[in-house]
Design brief:
Largest sheet of chain A: 10 strands, mixed
Oligomer: heterodimer
CATH architecture of chain B: 3-Layer(aba) Sandwich
Radius of gyration of chain B: 18 Å
Helix content of chain A: 10-25%
Distance between the termini of chain A: 56 Å
Number of strands of chain A: 20
Bound molecules: adenosine-5'-triphosphate, magnesium ion
Distance between the termini of chain B: 34 Å
Helix content of chain B: 25-40%
Order of helices and strands of chain A: HHHEEEHHHEEEEEEEEEEEEEEEEEHHH
CATH topology of chain B: Rossmann fold
Number of domains of chain B: 1
Largest interface: A-B, 30 and 37 residues
Shape of chain B: globular
Strand content of chain B: 25-35%
Number of domains of chain A: 2
Largest sheet of chain B: 6 strands, mixed
Radius of gyration of chain A: 22 Å
Number of strands of chain B: 12
Number of helices of chain B: 9
């Protein structure tokens, strides 16, 4: 305990110092509200430090390798990296606009940005300069910093990210891909704090993907905060793909506010990283809103994938459906903690939460904790989870058709994953995700040439 | 082709087969009948290589090799096929990919070239016509959400594609309507040849009007208690199993 305290004191000193340096380094010209917000983040982080396993919410996720990595928390670094499109073309999803960020900074020359009426898209860095008033209305308005070390750290140090505003009744002709590339050219570990702010005004529609990859195998930490504001009667599809290198750390905080009769779909795919945690807080703030929150994690070697979700039913007559599936190999570890909270006024809530895990190694572990807290009486809520290996009868059936054990297992795993990938509406995206899954399974099972999943209707 | 000698088997410690002896020669069709729970499916599953069953004694020789030592996929690659009484659902895996993987692994084991997507599609379409299955089943997940009869038809489709040397049909006729029964029987008969053999497990003489067997065996308490020609099935239909039970008990006592 004493040691923990010592560590914290030195961390407090460190962040104070780094924040001072950061403030001198160029945010002097920022509006006051933003300076105050950064101060708030810093004070909060000083108070909290990094989470430890004695914190109930971090019980199964040990981040000491992160703390030991001695990151420069500001993320500021003056290296210039020159990339050409061919360096990352395989990460580009077809038929999408692409916003490319290199080590957390927007690079317009590598991006394909929309120029369509009624949609404002820009980097956060640019918006801070050109239109900070619009940001002031949204930054920090749905993400809560209290008890959230990583979101506090992001709020202290973010410099860039994406800003999207879809105006009333507008929609883009194509989805947006936000591609975050980590290119750490020297060996000192690097941290980035992307900050995304997305607004869909009344009756508007938006499809977008956050895509995190590494271009080399050096260690890095991504600490992202995404805030989403969905006004009345909007529709939004959100995909998040975390496919960073196996040394990387990834901490994601996504917070959403959904107004009346809005529809939100999110799919979170955890594939890469050494330690990765996605935290989603979904607020159903308006009546008759609808939400689908899905996820898939495929964990191999010594990876740790942690998914923490909270669905906050704050208004009556909302629906939420949550399906997270995991496939675990080797000595990997996964954590699923999903809470559905139904406030007393949220009558006629209809909620269903499921977490299913396919455990393919005796040494892999899953800690799954679906939770329901209901304070209204007229609701329909269910939750459940399964953890199991390959079903012997399915395996036997496949083998009896000449299929070897290895191929049969791979096919069953693929079929298992497809129940959740099938929910991705956009076919280009679904195909992209399927390809990632097939590639990963082929890594585990050798060259057995799996198909791209055939989708049942 | 197949020789089962004095086979004893158990599952979860419970003895189910109590000394089965049966010889199937190339080109022959054997019907196996018997009351519920007598061990028919157990025998079928053991032949296909289900790992849950424990062989206590006896041997199974298939085309000169010890079948018991082979993994299920090796048996399939050696030309053995089981149409399941209860086909297994595999969500998320399409029928065509499932079958293509199986067929190509079988071909590979025989040193044949795998079929490419186009060749396979042509083959499966042709076989679907044979069993009168709608083409939409090509992309549907294996048995998932199929009706009982559709599952049975799908088993016959698989058989038609894999063209086994020894096919074991475990109650493929149960749950089929009369038209489907004819379709299935027709599919089976198309496959009959002088070097292909079949073991047909059924409760109903009706199927045997379409697939005429060379031999009929009655299984009771894990033993073949009576064997005969196709007229034995008619006898069973008329008198039930009680008469045979009596005969058997008397026979043993005598
Ligand atoms: N995996 C198993 N675990 C426990 N008992 C089993 C198992 N498989 C078979 N049995 C038992 O073995 C006996 C024989 O079952 P089997 O399925 O072979 O019968 P069957 O002759 O095919 O019957 P039916 O005509 O109803 O299909 C039954 O009593 C059954 O309950
Ligand atoms: Mg049976």
């Amino acid at each position: 305990m004493n040691q923990e305290l010592d560590l914290k004191t030195s961390l407090t000193e460190k962040i104070k110092l780094q924040f001072k340096k950061f403030s001198e380094n160029g945010v002097v010209s920022e509006p006051n509200w933003l300076k105050e917000y950064r101060n708030l983040g810093c004070t909060n982080f000083e108070k909290l430090g990094f989470p430890t396993q004695s914190d109930e919410e971090w019980k199964y996720t040990n981040i000491s390798p992160v703390i030991k990595s001695e990151f420069n928390l500001t993320g500021l670094k003056s290296d210039s990296i020159n990339l050409s499109k061919s360096d990352f073309s395989k990460y580009i999803i077809s038929n999408s606009y692409t916003f490319v960020f290199v080590n957390g900074q927007f690079v317009s020359s590598l991006s394909v940005v929309p120029n369509e009426e009624g949609i404002e898209v820009a980097s956060i860095k640019e918006i801070i300069k050109t239109n900070p008033e619009i940001l002031e209305k949204y930054i920090g308005k749905v993400i809560e910093l209290e008890n959230n070390s990583f979101a506090s750290l992001n709020s202290t140090f973010f410099t860039d990210g994406i800003f999207i505003q879809v105006n009333e009744s507008k929609k883009l002709s194509k989805p947006i891909e936000i591609l975050y590339l980590s290119v750490n050219e020297n060996n000192s570990p690097r941290i980035t704090h992307p900050r995304n702010c997305i607004i869909v005004k009344k009756n508007g529609m938006l499809d977008f993907t956050e895509h995190y990859v590494s271009l080399n195998s050096n260690k890095n930490l991504t600490n992202v905060v995404t805030e989403l504001f969905l006004e009345e009667n909007t529709k939004c599809n959100h995909i998040k793909i975390q496919n960073e290198v196996n040394k990387a750390f990834h901490f994601g905080n996504t917070a959403i506010s959904q107004k009346a009769t809005s529809e939100f779909f999110t799919f979170s795919f955890s594939l890469g990283g050494l330690i990765s945690r996605n935290q989603i807080i979904l607020n159903l703030d308006g009546e008759k809103s609808n939400s689908n929150m899905n996820g898939l994690y495929i964990s191999t070697s010594n990876q740790l994938h942690d998914n923490h979700t909270l669905i906050n039913h704050k208004t009556p007559k909302c629906n939420s459906r949550e399906l997270y599936k995991g496939i675990l190999y080797d000595e990997s570890k996964s954590v699923f903690n999903g809470k559905v909270y139904v406030h007393s006024i949220a009558q006629k809530t209809d909620s269903k939460q499921t977490n299913k895990n396919l455990l393919l190694s005796e040494n892999a572990t899953i800690d799954t904790k679906p939770q329901l807290e209901i304070f209204a009486d007229d609701v329909k809520c269910t939750h459940g989870g399964t953890v199991g290996g390959i079903d012997v009868n399915s395996l036997f059936y496949m083998k009896s058709r000449g299929i070897s054990t290895k191929s049969a297992e791979a096919l069953i795993a693929l079929g298992f994953a497809s129940e959740v990938t099938e929910t991705i509406e956009n076919l280009d995206l679904r195909k992209y995700v399927d390809t990632l899954i097939v590639d990963r399974l082929e890594k585990s099972y050798g060259n057995i040439s799996l198909p791209i999943i055939a989708h049942s209707s | 082709m197949l020789q089962i000698n004095n086979l004893y088997a158990a599952v979860t410690g419970k003895k189910i087969l109590n000394g089965i002896t049966l010889t199937v020669n190339p080109g022959e069709v054997h019907a196996v009948m018997g009351p519920n729970g007598s061990g028919k499916s157990t025998l079928a599953q053991i032949l296909a290589g289900h790992p849950a069953y424990e062989i206590l004694d006896g041997e199974i020789i298939y085309e000169g090799q010890n079948l018991i030592a082979l993994e299920a996929e090796k048996r399939s690659q050696a030309g053995l096929f089981l149409a399941f009484q209860y086909p297994v659902e595999i969500p998320g895996v399409s029928n065509s990919y499932f079958l293509k993987t199986g067929l190509n692994e079988i071909r590979k084991s025989r040193g044949e070239q795998p079929l490419d997507a186009m060749e396979f599609l042509k083959l499966i379409r042709e076989k679907m016509k044979l069993v009168e299955m709608n083409e939409s089943f090509i992309n549907r997940p294996v048995n998932h959400g199929y009706s009982g009869g559709e599952k049975k038809r799908n088993e016959i489709l698989q058989m038609a594609v894999l063209e086994p040397k020894l096919a074991i049909l475990d109650e493929t006729d149960s749950g089929l309507d009369i038209d489907a029964l004819k379709v299935v029987a027709n599919g089976v008969n198309k496959l009959r040849s002088k070097d292909r053999s079949m073991i047909v497990v059924t409760h109903y003489q009706r199927l045997l009007n379409y697939i005429v067997p060379d031999f009929v065996h009655v299984l009771m308490n894990g033993r073949i208690v009576k064997s005969g020609g196709k007229e034995l099935a008619l006898e069973l239909e008329a008198f039930g199993y009680d008469k045979i039970k009596e005969e058997f008990v008397n026979g043993v006592n005598a």
